[in-house]
């Protein structure tokens, strides 16, 4: 089982919604959100059961899950980080400054992750893919 968490953040580290102008920037390309959705077996949502995911991880299934961090799924994302269920963190960083809200690294520690891939996108946005340190 593999769980990927997709997060869109501002340059100063605050969570952003994947809105109209950001959608174009992060949907395209090999590491775009659309490509990740196509490769995932199932999308996780705010009602997804952490207990069921823990059991499935224990049984070592071959299912690939994708969860997008947004205000509605925040409790799920916190649980995925807390119980170390998330295996990969796909981080889209946009050049915007938000200066308030929820900071990504208030949810998870940067020391839990190692950078595996960095990809620059148009309009000064970037994609970073991190793997969980075991």
Question: Could you explain how this protein is built, in words?
Answer:
The protein has four helices and six strands, in the order βααβαβαβββ. By secondary structure, it is of the alpha/beta class. The protein has a single domain, classed as 3-Layer(aba) Sandwich (Dihydrofolate Reductase, subunit A), CATH 3.40.430.10. Strands 2-3-1-4-6-5 form a six-stranded mixed sheet, covered by helices on one side. A hairpin with a 5-residue loop joins strand 5 and strand 6 (126-132). The radius of gyration is 14 Å and the shape is globular. It starts with a strand and ends with a strand. The model has no long low-confidence stretch (mean pLDDT 89).
Task: Give the key terms.
single chain; about 130 residues; alpha/beta; Dihydrofolate Reductase, subunit A; 6-stranded mixed β-sheet; globular
